[in-house]
């Protein structure tokens, strides 16, 4: 694990890359929502869901390592729930998104913003990760080209019925082609699977009927 040193404070490099990727995904999706005159609620839900993941992941150590917390209460401040806590956070955040989408009846809008946010953010993460790992220029350019192509493809809102197909292709490329050969953590790899699958579920017209 690569670490960045700031005086006496150290932080994992992949945390910094993840933060930059989330900011990049948020900026692009904000432009998308404004350009298409969509409600901002879907983007706000995604940001809230990310906050839920962080909180659950951080404090899930109480669930998965209660003995340590019982012996040293301050460990809650310094440790997390690990991989188990991260997946628990993903599960809870999805329940939050599904509940909010059902309550506000914006399944399709949420699914398209989630897919764009995830595609842009994950693509940027792959790009930054490749640079920091010293990958060759061909690999770096392939991430840039593929992500740009996906973003252009997703920008068109005139065919929302094809969104599950688009999400399926993004899933195949990001998860099956790009990630299987790479040495990323299980949590990093799982994101390539989860965000398109969530978009497919939320946009499934057979399960949900709503007017867009």
UniProtKB/TrEMBL annotation:
Q: List where the protein spans the membrane.
A: 12-33, 45-64, 76-98, 110-131, 137-155, 167-184, 190-208
Task: Provide this UniProt record's keywords sorted from A to Z.
Answer: Membrane, Transmembrane, Transmembrane helix
Q: Which superkingdom, per the lineage? A: Bacteria
Q: What is this protein called?
A: Uncharacterized protein
Q: Which organism is it from?
A: Siminovitchia thermophila
